[in-house]
Specification:
Elements: H1 8-21, H2 26-35, H3 46-67, H4 69-73, H5 80-115, H6 125-196, H7 201-308
Main location: membrane
GO cellular component, one term: endoplasmic reticulum
Transmembrane segments: 290-308
């Protein structure tokens, strides 16, 4: 047996001579020779680029939360306006990431629709595997975004709870001040009643109007404080419901992925069933032909034996 000889160096010498004959300089010849060793990385698909961009956006959101975590939860570091600004930026981040994930889902659905044949069955197995891989990528991105969103929901719940704890003592203090003012107003009224007969009538009317306005303002402030406390409590409940809803959405995404896998398996089973049916039809037709041939031969055999006898 003749041993094979390595002709790689001969090929490189031929390429080098051809490059020099074409007038290439040494740098270009070196780059051509290096291309035989170092191959260029394959180009990523638009879906992969969009998925990586979405993952980078989610990572930036996570870093932003870690950076402003203390500023958002500590009441002595920042003002309410600054915390509202942080919350607005985080909400914008989350909305942008969710829109990018929705775009990826729509592209997968469009590709899945175009890859199906006229019977609704995938044309090639490789394309179905690629679509399943893309569904897995979208599911991982959704889980990552859900984790970051859950962290922000916890921070928001801490902020609202601090606001409620801060508002409850203020309400009690206002009630105490109202009772003190009511107790002090009684002796003042007694003192005013004594010289009332000596004072003029307009002063008494003006004092009465001032007292009525003060009581009305106190009632209005009390109602406003009750409304604010009720609103804060509802906001905490809404945050908890939002966290619960996001958890259910993640569970539904997992169930959808499971249903998709079952649909792929059912499609494969249908294809196998169609093949079995076609084979059964072929076997049925061949057996029918064999039976007719057997009856034909048997009939002629009987007639021949009858004639022969």
């Amino acid at each position: 047996m003749v041993k094979a000889r390595d002709r790689t160096e001969d090929f490189k010498d031929t390429v080098r001579r051809s490059a020099h004959s074409l007038g290439y300089d040494e740098a270009k010849v070196a780059s051509i020779m290096a291309s035989f060793i170092i191959h260029k990385p394959p180009q990523r698909s638009p879906f992969s680029k969009a998925a990586l961009k979405t993952l980078e956006s989610i990572g930036e959101l996570d870093q932003f939360l870690l950076k402003h975590r203390k500023d958002y939860t500590d009441l002595h570091r920042t003002t309410e306006k600054e915390r509202d600004s942080i919350e607005h930026e985080v909400s914008t981040f989350i909305k942008t990431c969710q829109e990018q994930i929705d775009i990826l889902k729509n592209s997968i659905n469009q590709e899945e629709e175009t890859s199906k044949g006229w019977l609704g069955i995938a044309t090639t197995k490789s394309n179905a595997d690629v679509i399943a891989h893309k569904h897995g990528v979208v599911l991982i991105l959704s889980e990552r975004l859900h984790t970051v969103t859950a962290q922000f929901d916890q921070l928001r719940a801490v902020r609202f709870q601090d606001a409620i704890n801060k508002a409850i003592p203020r309400r009690k203090l206002n009630r105490v001040t109202r009772t003190d003012s009511a107790e002090t107003s009684k002796p003042d009224g007694m003192e005013l009643r004594e010289p009332e007969e000596l004072r003029a009538e307009p002063l008494r009317v003006q004092q009465q109007l001032l007292d009525d306005e003060t009581r009305a303002l106190q009632v209005e402030l009390t109602n406003l404080l009750d409304t604010v406390q009720e609103t804060e409590t509802k906001m905490v409940e809404m945050s908890a419901l939002n966290h619960l809803m996001s958890t259910h959405v993640l569970q539904q995404a997992q169930q959808i992925e499971h249903l998709y896998e079952q649909a792929i398996e059912a499609t494969k089973n249908v294809e196998l069933g169609n093949k079995e049916l076609s084979q059964a039809i072929q076997r049925n037709s061949s057996s029918r032909t064999f039976l007719l041939l057997f009856l034909f031969v048997l009939t002629f055999s009987i007639l021949f034996l009858d004639w022969y006898s």
